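Handout for the seminar on molecular recognition.
Each group receives one record of this type.
Step one: identify the two inputs.
Step two: read the structure output and locate the region that could contact adenosine-5'-triphosphate.
Step three: write two sentences on what you found, then compare them with the reference statements printed after the record.
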Amino acid sequence: MSNDIKSSTANTATPEPAANFLRNQIDADLVAGTYARPDLPNVITRFPPEPNGYLHIGHAKSICVNFGLARDYAGLCHMRFDDTNPEKEEQEYVDTILDSVKWLGFTWEKEIAGAKQTHLYYASDYFNKLYEMAEYLITAGHAYVDSQSAADMKANRGNFGEPGKNSPYRDRSPAESLDLFRRMKAGEFKDGEHIVRAKIDMASPNINLRDPAIYRIRHAHHHRTGDKWCIYPMYDYTHPLSDALENITHSICTLEFQDHRPFYDWVIERCAEGGFFKKPVPHQYEFARLNLTYIITSKRKLRQLVEEAIVEGWDDPRMPTLVGMRRRGYTPEAIQLMCERTGVTKSDGWIDYSVLEGCLREDLDPKAPRATAVLRPLKLVIDNFPEGETVECTSPVHPHFPERGNRVFPISKELWIEQEDFMETPSKGYFRLFPGNKVRLRYGYVVECTGCDKDADGNVIAVHCNYFADSKSGTEGSANYKVKGNIHWVSAPHALEAEVRLFDRLFTDPNPDSGGKDFKLALNPASKEVVTAYLEPGMSAAMPEDVYQFERHGYFVADRVDSAPGKPVFNRVVTLKDSWGK
Ligand code: ATP
Ligand code: MG
């Protein structure tokens, strides 16, 4: 398995979007005037999810490509639900998909001359038209009702090396097929008794052209059309015709649909002959799907993670779903940047997960205010600090943007520090607290360690030190102290106690499910750790979805679900440095 892009170091946003074969195609069509139509944009794309699950990072790629092209070419991108599968689809999925697309920063609404247009579509809105077109195809001899059993149909389809065989019903008269089709619609038959197929070529080397099914019987309730229909159009039939009905110009999908393109063209061509739409008609283009390491995107497997309670829901911050990534603190800007940077190609490859994390750090670093958090607390007592007294310390909200001001927090006799910032017997090169050593308490005083307290089992339970009253950061005296160690701390009586969740990748294997592997064997046992941390007091004002850089630890977001006013719960978005590439 090759990783196309190992890590990202570039630090500048691309001013001009990178050229790719889709942009080249659109440029060529603009020059040729292929889609120059009086009252329609020259570029109309669409994002066509099936409302049968939650969107994931792979879908984000398709959203960025389709909505991104429409934006860059001053065209339109239609938001369309391909809802032809009544049993699997639900309104809940429609709602979350719309939410996620908006969250990613795109819209299907457009203002033209002060009037708002809404380009939100449902394939189910075309059921009448799709039905009419099927009647036309039957009448014109381009489709027929097949009444073979499912098993016979499968056996007669042949396979890669072997041509299929014509159905005994293939030469039914159009009149007979039409009568059966109308009775299918009227509900006279059970599921699977009859099916409508396009009449193309049972010997075609492309199996998709061996008389593909276009309509089937399903006595099922549809989330939008209710019980109006008991026949439903197939995806491969619905998709091209929906594109044509919506005047789509460039219909962009992933490579696995390449073999479906001949049928895409065939069905549009036949229906155009029948006068259902005018030329120019849409054309399909395929690009390589986004494959990211360390995640899985199969809807079935994601569902398994949720149903078997391996994660805590579709929006678990470890999930690659957009609702999960949002909760984790990933930003739309970082996801868009990753999609732009990984480009559009015609050959499949893998993108290392660190590329996405790199984009995330790049986006968060300038935005995120700094804050202090002690994640694994140990008490530090400043023995010579006056009991009950506090002194104010200040530090910048952001070291590179002084205009964002300062944060103010107190220091007092008892502090929380990180356990790892004290060693009774220091290892070589350890400059933090150990008996006899001096360190600076960041933004505060220099202290000298004098010893520690231990419990009956020999565990260190408190560290003692004395401070130098003239060493405070920002005062003249501070220059007289040269110390190598600089540690963070929060004042114990003032600190905000908070739940902090230390998330990491869900899988330890870069390709958890490739080659038929059981992805459950690759689960990272350390993907979630919950700690009780102490934060600087101002953090009680953190609002859900606010992101901070906890100095030395990484980026953390106030969880949008579990935070309460004055009582934020934090999720680790990403550490400061990549620890997986080592
Ligand atoms: P399935 O069809 O198996 O239910 P799907 O992931 O294809 O799953 P759709 O709802 O059909 O789900 O996807 C909507 C769009 O997102 C399609 O155009 C599809 O090609 C695109 N898409 C899905 N996964 C990726 C990916 N990893 N990279 C790029 N585009 C993707
Ligand atoms: Mg699909």
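Reference statements: The two ends are 18 Å apart (CA to CA). Residues 57-72 form the longest helix (16 residues).
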